[in-house]
Amino acid sequence: MAKAQNDVKIEVGQVARLTICRQARRNALSAGVIEGLIDGLKMLGDNTEVRAIVLTGEGERAFCAGGDLGDQLPEEGMLGMHRVRGQFAELILSMRRSPKPLIARVNGHALGGGFGLVLACDLAVAADHASFGTPEVKVGLFPMMISALIQRSISQKHAMELMLTGDRIDAARALEVGVVNQVVAAAELDDAVGALAERVAAHSPAVVGLGRQAYYATEDMSLEQALRMLHSQLTINTLAEDAAEGISAFLEKRDPQWKGQ
């Protein structure tokens, strides 16, 4: 099932898909796109059929070119623009809080806020013609908000080079510095994303969701704080019905039948 909402197409299935549909604007982030992505993540997160979510852009040129510099000023003026920028933060937090794994299908340029979307996903597969970067400094801006993601994903020297120069890196370099998991020819992108998504979707959705959220919840904790929290999360994990099913299936040499509980 596919549903269009605020320049975002939502396709529901075991591997669901969110597509930014603003090809003429290189899939730039408007207020409507941000709202549509937040709503789509909520809808798919609540759907028990969904095991993984693929995020991509329409066409072959751009995944997402970042914020739309040509977007009209909201009726509320500059305070309204401040509110819209705050919605981008809510989008990133919605991605982090999603109970379903997120996979970026990088079909072209991922720049500025679009680069941030790639980094906010759990996994990323890029076409070999894709490029990545934070060009904001070239127009007198700094990638303030996505720097929170950059510093959590890339080493300091690589991060500062991107942000201070505004230069782009190609897909091969993005793979080297850990921005993406795979780089494939454009013609192979859907097959590669599909294969990766199916591998993720094959596991217990309950356990994957629990583990994913524990991982992000502890990333800024001290070692002791993280271990204390993960200790309790492990106990919760062992009480799940899918944990018992997984162990039984292993001992009985059969495929597990996940209940998502």
TrEMBL record:
Source organism of the structure: Lujinxingia sediminis
A Pfam family reported for this protein in Swiss-Prot or TrEMBL: ECH_1
Family of this protein: Belongs to the enoyl-CoA hydratase/isomerase family.
Protein name: Crotonase
Source taxon at top rank: Bacteria
SUPFAM superfamilies: ClpP/crotonase
